[in-house]
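Priority: medium. Attachment 1 of 2:
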């Protein structure tokens, strides 16, 4: 193979692609890294000048994700705008069963965190600008891919020009609607839940006090995640409301006051009155898993590899653990003088991540199937399950570790593999 233009080309510069680029630069010596992002880079304020918007979208970060960002040297910056989840309260409307998780019971300051997506991106870009081995191409589009004996040729379009770009490994990180995945002919297995997620930030009369609320209703689950900012600090939460298409149309047709009243009727009065309902977004809910996540010189990561129902807040956390598994495989490649696109290297990533991927998808999907419908026969079973989780320490410990993104086991950290505890 002639000299490649770059060692690793990451197609997609969102949270997954940017995190992967930074992790490779800081954990794997020697590789040249290129990120191709379809959207132009906007001028971003310096972190000290950042002002969060009330309507900003946010991401739930599990405790395991905090540990990963700490290892990458990013957590000190991220934590400045991240609200800790100190407690999780899980209940079902109309039944007495409830499960409560508290960080102090697991000797941790938090079970997880909620961070503004724009702030996460700002922290990542601030760090990426200081990494000389990372080349950022934006706006740029990665087109058709031609496999080589060792590596791939891709068509790269930038600033009206098209050129052939050669890399030893192509990482597909362009999201759930991945055009590059489709161009590669990689199929996707989809399960449509027949529901929509309505996303908005809300303000409540009472403070959230670091509590995340998971509420299962006859129309589907809803979650309220604590936010740090807002017009009344400590009173704002990120709402994820699962609705049928008909119910979504009803809610979208309501004014702010009536939306608050509808939400009040379903959630209840634990946080007092809902007094503000911010700008909303919605999208259809689908469980999607790519039929392949690796090929010679090609790896899929993030939503291009799998997209989950948001019920358990595990989508980005699973993706992040997958990124670290890929980084560890690249470290293996450097140590054994292998190409980062060697199928032995990428199969190692797939093997290390597969158990976590399968278990996390199964965990999220099972919650949706058990709690997401209104079948009367499942009511007593769901209620007994919540009561059992709250009363049986071993079951509660298992559920808490899943929520914290640490897996179900409590096995000790392996000194030879810094990330193994994140996917066990």
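Attachment 2 of 2:
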């Amino acid at each position: 193979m002639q000299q490649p233009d770059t060692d690793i080309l990451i197609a997609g510069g969102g949270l997954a692609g940017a995190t992967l680029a930074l992790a490779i630069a800081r954990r794997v010596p020697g590789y040249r890294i290129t990120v191709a992002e379809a959207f132009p880079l906007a001028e971003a304020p310096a972190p000290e000048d950042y002002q969060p918007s009330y309507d900003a979208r946010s991401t739930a970060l599990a405790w395991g994700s905090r540990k990963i960002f700490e290892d990458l040297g990013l957590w000190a910056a991220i934590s400045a705008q991240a609200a800790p989840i100190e407690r999780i309260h899980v209940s079902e409307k109309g039944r007495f069963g409830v499960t409560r998780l508290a960080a102090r019971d697991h000797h941790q300051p938090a079970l997880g965190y909620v961070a503004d997506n724009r702030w996460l991106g700002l922290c990542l870009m601030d760090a990426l600008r200081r990494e000389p081995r990372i080349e950022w191409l934006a706006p740029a589009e990665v087109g058709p891919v031609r496999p080589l004996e060792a590596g791939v040729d891709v068509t790269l379009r930038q600033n009206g020009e098209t050129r052939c770009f050669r890399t030893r490994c192509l990482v597909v990180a362009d999201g759930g609607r991945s055009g590059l995945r489709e161009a590669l002919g990689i199929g996707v297995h989809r399960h449509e839940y027949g529901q929509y997620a309505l996303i908005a930030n809300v303000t409540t009369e009472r403070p959230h006090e670091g509590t995340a609320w998971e509420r299962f209703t006859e129309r589907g689950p809803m979650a309220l995640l604590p936010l740090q900012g807002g017009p009344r600090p400590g009173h704002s939460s990120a709402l994820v409301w699962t609705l049928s298409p008909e119910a979504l149309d009803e809610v979208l047709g309501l004014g702010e006051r009536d939306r608050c009243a509808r939400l009040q009727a379903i959630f209840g009065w634990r946080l007092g009155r809902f007094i503000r309902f911010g700008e909303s977004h919605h999208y259809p809910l689908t469980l999607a898993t790519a039929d392949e996540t690796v090929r010679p010189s090609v790896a899929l990561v993030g939503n291009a590899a799998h997209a989950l129902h948001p019920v358990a807040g595990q989508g980005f956390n699973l993706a992040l653990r997958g990124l670290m598994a890929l980084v560890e495989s690249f470290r293996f490649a450097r140590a054994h003088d292998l190409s980062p696109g060697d199928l032995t290297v990428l199969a190692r990533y797939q093997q290390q991540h597969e158990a976590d991927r399968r278990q996390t998808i199964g965990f999220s999907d099972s919650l949706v199937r058990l709690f997401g419908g209104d079948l009367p026969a499942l009511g007593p079973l769901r209620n007994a399950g919540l009561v059992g989780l709250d009363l049986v320490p071993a079951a509660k410990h298992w559920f808490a570790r899943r929520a914290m993104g640490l897996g179900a086991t409590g096995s000790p950290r392996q000194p030879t593999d810094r990330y193994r505890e994140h996917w066990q």
